Amino acid sequence: MPTLLAVLAVLLATLAGAVPARCAEQQLDAYNTYLSPPFLNPDGSGIAADLVARLNVHLAGAYRLRLRHVPRQRLMLASMRNPASFDGVGLLLSPGFVNEDRNPRFLWSEPVFYDHNVLIFAASSTPQLESVEDLRGLRFGAIIGYRYLNLERLVEDGGLQRQDTGAERLNLRKVALGRVDFTQMNRLLYGAIEGEAEFAGKLAAIPEPGAPPFARRLFVGPHQKALLLRLNAALASLPCDALWRASTARHQITLAPCAR
Fold first, then answer.
1. 209-256 pLDDT per residue, tens
2. Quick one: which of 160, 151, 115 has its CA closest to 131?
3. Residue 29: beta bridge partners?
4. What is the DSSP letter of 173?
5. CATH number belonging to domain 117-207
6. Which fold, 25-114+214-250?
């Protein structure tokens, strides 16, 4: 009996040492607002899932992220309404996309990677553009709740007729059918869709005049300075993370060189 009690004591001590390590990890929701490939594929995989998986490796012992996919307008109207109570992590956005460019209420990370948008026209009527002023008078297919920083002035002064839908594919269909003249979307999203049978050969993408590349970042609530420090440390490790490099290479995303 003493031997059995000694074994039980060792087991309990082992478990007592193991459980707190997992319990110490703070569980946080990580919000992705890109609901189309390659950010979110039909099987749940994609850039967002890959990013969260690799961040969790580098955050182990302190935080664990749970991926949530939500429309951007819902994130802005609900989760982001009160910054002081926001305990999650926003994924792969830029401050200007969520009205954070002028008076930020959240804390923003170092860049995850740099990206750019393109303008999509019907293949049979692709213009030569020198500036966004050349778009004046056209019909623009947009997404409800999205900001288009380089086009806002034209929309506000009536130079562009903005027509909102709920998804990128709906706008591409409207362009292909001639119901709007063009749409704007991220080059990664367009690259994942353009070859589909519905759109193949019907559309053409051109650079957006005057729009520089933008940094995709993470954001947290203003009270989460410790979390931001850990996220930035994790992001600094990603250029040397082989699985993250493989994921980004599949989508022609350029990362900083590994500094090790």
1. 999 999 999 999 999 999 999 999 999 999 999 999 999 999 999 999
2. 151
3. 66
4. H
5. 3.40.190.10
6. D-Maltodextrin-Binding Protein; domain 2 (3.40.190)
